[in-house]
Amino acid sequence: MNHSAGLSLRLAWRNIWRQKRRTWLTALAMVFSNVLLVFMISLQLGSYDMMIDNSLRLFSGQLQVQRSGYHEDQQMRQQVADISALTSRLRERFPGADFAARASAFVLVSGQHRTYGIQMVGVQPERERGVSTIPGLLVSGRYLQQHDAAETVIGSVMAQNLQVTVGDDLTFLGSGGDGSFAAGVVRVTGIFESGSKDLDRGFAEVPLDYFQDAFSMHGGGHVIAVAVDELGQVPLMKAALRSALAGQPGLTVLDWDALMPGLRQAIQADMTSAWFMYGVLIVLVAFSVLNTQLMSVLERTREFGVIMALGVRPRRLASLVLLETALMALLGLLIGIALGLLVTAYFAHTGFSYPGMREMADKFNLPGAMFPRISALSVLTGPLVVFLFCLLAALYPAFRLYRLRPVDAMRAA
């Protein structure tokens, strides 16, 4: 059996080089599609990482520590006691991550002529830069500096709606953590522009100590935002935080998937639409293989008739045609993966950008280039699908041999 398999392999390899030009054209079509798929899928996965990281670093953080149930029902009473001290302990235990304590409330805020409902968030000014890009998105003024100062930074849309600018005062009214009324006057020290209309319209930050005093929080807060260097570290950090907080019942750790479920849904939708385009490319390559193998079978009709007359079964000939296709597809797969890895590795080192991307990214404090993410998934998925479709395309030429009559085949010119 081993001798027979070796003979079939040698015959298949010899047969695909009968028409060298046609074989190379077909193989090059596979190589081109494989290189394109390896690069595009890697770039797509890298862009998802960048999109997730940018979305999370805008404000939410990659993980959050909060009271169980707070994410679903954000009530003032669902507080984390002595949140600043807890944040400091976590920061000391996990020096490789950034931690920032926050407290949040929904308030009515008024300028000189208008009143709007917004979300007011108390932050630690010196720590917020590690978990949020908002401090770097100011278009005028400065960010918060003092821990207990009556000052605020607001979004650009809110500033337009309230008709205020840097140096103006805002009056807010809300409900305190103990059920009392919370009111105060804060001065606008900065205006940011995040690119998100919802955030720019209804979001303001004040120092955490001032927030706790104004809203009678008694040192409490609602959220500890956590940021790590890479998304791949999130599962490990989540498990480590849960272990560290095991002695404090009522607290939970949420990762970005729980905090922003719509983000994963958007990625899945984009991946589906992308694979529709990839599918068009793969089908075109499969038709190229179908044409090549069909021509190869038709050219050898007389030869196949003679072989069948000598007692070789159609199943053996069909297997030979499929083996020829597999060898040709394997050639395209190996060369395509090798070249695709070289191209992808180059852009993974230098970054990939298109005209105008860097200028737009600088405006929103974002990276100016996308970096493809090389993984087994991105490198092998596309070429293996091409390989499979090439084998499927060869089924029709192979099955034609089952209908071949030796006498009629030998008479063929």
Topology (elements, then pairings):
Layout: H1 2-16, H2 20-58, E1 63-67, H3 83-93, E2 98-110, E3 115-123, H4 125-131, E4 138-141, E5 151-155, H5 156-162, E6 169-175, E7 181-192, H6 197-201, E8 203-207, H7 208-214, E9 223-227, H8 234-244, E10 251-255, H9 256-259, H10 261-299, H11 301-309, H12 314-350, H13 357-363, H14 376-393, H15 395-400, H16 406-411
Parallel strand pairs: 3-8, 5-7
Antiparallel strand pairs: 1-9, 1-10, 2-3, 2-6, 2-9, 4-7, 5-8, 6-7
Helix pairs in contact: 1-12, 2-10, 2-12, 2-14, 10-14, 12-14
Question: If you had to describe this structure to a student in words, what would you say it looks like?
Answer:
The chain is of the alpha+beta class and 413 residues long. The protein folds into 2 domains: 2-56 and 263-411, no CATH class; 61-259, no CATH class. Helix content is 55%, strand content 17%. It has 16 helices and 10 strands. Strands 2-3-8-5-7-6 form a 6-stranded mixed barrel, surrounded by 4 helices. Strand 6 and strand 7 (181-192) form a beta hairpin. The longest helix has 39 residues, at 20-58. It starts with a helix and ends with a helix. The model has no long low-confidence stretch (mean pLDDT 89).
